[in-house]
Amino acid sequence: xxxxxxxxxxxxxxxxxxxxxxxxxxxxxxxxxxxxxxxxxxxxxxxxxxxxxxxxxxxxxxxxxxxxxxxxxxxxxxxxxxxxxxxxxxxxxxxxxxxxxxxxxxxxxxxxxxxxxxxxxxxxxxxxxxxxxxxxxxxxxxxxxxxxxxxxxxxxxxxxxxxxxxxxxxxxxxxxxxxxxxxxxxxxxxxxxxxxxxxxxxxxxxxxxxxxxxxxxxxxxxxxxxxxxxxxxxxxxxxxxxxxxxxxxxxxxxxxxxxxx
Length: 261
Prior knowledge:
Layout: E1 2-13, E2 16-27, E3 31-35, H1 42-50, E4 58-65, E5 68-69, H2 75-81, E6 86-89, H3 93-96, H4 103-115, H5 119-132, H6 138-141, H7 151-163, E7 169-173, H8 181-198, E8 201-206, H9 209-212, E9 218-223, E10 226-232, H10 233-238, H11 243-260
Parallel strand pairs: 3-8, 3-9, 6-7, 7-8
Antiparallel strand pairs: 1-2, 1-4, 4-5, 9-10
Helix pairs in contact: 4-5, 4-7, 5-7, 7-8
Family: Belongs to the ABC transporter superfamily.
Subcellular location: Cell membrane
Organism: Amycolatopsis tucumanensis
């Protein structure tokens, strides 16, 4: 059953067309990778799904979640969907997290907002989630402020927040870019494992095919705001049809040689 259906998504910002007829679909429990270079439109596609585009954006097309149209919904209706039905893990958790709020309270916030948990219940669940995402000494970790945690630990907090309400769709936007290779691999395993465990569909955004190969079953390639190619992970990796995709593969192989060389 199709969970997310994006069709003809076209976005103009400041008079410039930044997305041009983007289409993709994602079934419940499936994993889809959205790949392209910086400026290709990956993050804008995710922001359009969440209804977080700039106020001056002009949007055409359709974004349906479980058959219900999201484009055109007001902020109040969208706020009920964000965090509960759709959640996002951002690229840089230090900017996504509130620096003045303890991380336990930030994990608990969607639980109180969407699930109606009491303060005590939400805190207990925040500790459980902190343990589930691998934060050391969860009881202590939830009392920390974001700047007191490492980059990998902050990203784990972001994952805990995103998965707190067991969303039907998890969007991960370049969630490992700022992390070293070892922590990156841990975070990728964590996102993939928890999404599968909760039955959440995963839309994973990256510029790196090597990263995508660890989390996605299907791939959509974006370039210049357009879908250039789509297919199974195997098809994209072993028989890319578009020159742009072949270039991405060449870059990934060259970077792999540099790391291992």
